[in-house]
Amino acid sequence: MNVSLSSALRALLLVACSVASASAADEKAKPAAKPKPKPTATAAPAGPKPTEVNVPYGKHPKQVIDFYQAESKEPTPVVFYIHGGGWRGGSKNNYNPIAFLREGISVVAVEYRFVDEAAADAVEPPVKGPLHDAARALQFVRSKAKEWNLDKTRIAATGGSAGACSSLWLAFHDDLADPKSEDSIARESTRLLAAAVIGAQTSLDPKQMKEWMPNSKYGSHAFLPLDGNGRAQPFEAFLEKREQLLPLIKEYSPYELVTSDDPAIGLYYGPPPAMGKETPDPTHSANFGLGLQEKCKSVGVECELIYKGAADVKHETPADFLISKLKAKK
After folding, report:
1. What is the pLDDT of residues 276-308, one digit of tens each?
2. Among candidate residues 174, 161, 156, 242, the one with its CA nearest the CA of residue 202
3. Domain segments of the chain: what residues?
């Protein structure tokens, strides 16, 4: 069956892929700069305006969210959107939540520190910045459940490319809640009900990526500092340093975190998988999806893999997948 993604979701992946592919090809990037000012509401896409704009969940200017409230007398489910861009670009302002609002599902769009901004804050490895920002934002949303009329037990994540990887990391990671913390937000859960993502990097292990897609070039910037010109280090350097990075890979690679108690996952890609073969876009290859699906199946986690020509597709788009999970009877 040929799966046609909605125009909004297709645009999301195109934006994410363009930035991530530039990083993968090690093209020249701007040097690390000072934290950018808060995004402005004028950058929002055509569509519903946020109910709340640039609500801070942390002290950094990039640690902000937009909240779109669905009309409902009862607490609503939530879609938690993390934008893509290789953890080096992109913006929450490019998301249109209308498909979910029409279904009575509220939406949160997350901004976060990029890897260079995290490195400037002495965060190690750099990828810990965007991933832990996402976790903190999720906890913050749960802390607002009463005020924003949210059902904190029904939150699902979505995103494209790096935002997809972040979503899967949240979905598979053990709960980061600290019940003994004096910080009420830190006591909130980071677990999800489901995740549906586009073009996800499901592994951040360079050896595994080479086995799945021999022409892999992406991922060094997640663990290694950018060079003096703001460029990612060569993939070969990433592969050479794998052994010393392995403890970090096991903490931040979604594949490594899958356990039997994890939520349902929807994985959406373009061309079909060809495991072990070079692919036109190894950074967003369906081989990532096939590898993760096999891992999920081995421990009994529900995982749908959708690509062009896939058979027996239950949910044609990530929105279909998330709506079905968030609105399912308890």
Report:
1. 999 999 999 999 999 999 999 999 999 999 999
2. 161
3. 7-326
SS3 assignment, position 43: helix
Angle at 195 between CA 318 and CA 41, to 5 degrees: 75
The 3-class SS string of 249-273 reads HHHHCHHHHCCCCCCEEEEECCCCC
The helix/strand/coil state of 123 is coil
- CA 262, 199, 9, 231 torsion: positive or negative? positive
The candidate with the shortest Cα–Cα distance to 11, out of 322, 317, 222, is 317
Count of residues in the chain: 330
Which one-letter DSSP state was computed for residue 241? T
216 token code pair: 């892999």
As beta bridge partners, residue 67 has: 52, 108
Q: CB 324: neighbour CB atoms within 10 A?
A: 15
**Which has the minimum average pLDDT: 27-31, 87-91, 222-226, 234-238?**
27-31
Mean pLDDT lowest among 36-40, 82-86, 91-95, 209-213 = 36-40
What is the distance between the alpha carbons of residues 259 and 266, in angstroms, rounded to a whole number? 16
95 bridge partner residues: none
Q: What is the CA radius of gyration of the chain?
A: 18
7-326 — its CATH code?
3.40.50.1820
Give the global pTM: 0.88
User: CA 189 to CA 156: how far, in whole Å?
Assistant: 13
Sort 248 into a burial class: Cβ within 10 Å, 0-12 / 13-18 / 19+: middle
In the chain, the DSSP E strands lie at 52-56, 64-68, 76-82, 106-110, 150-160, 194-198, 264-268, 303-306
Query: What pLDDT score was predicted for residue 329?
Result: 84
Tokens 């979905």, residue located: 171
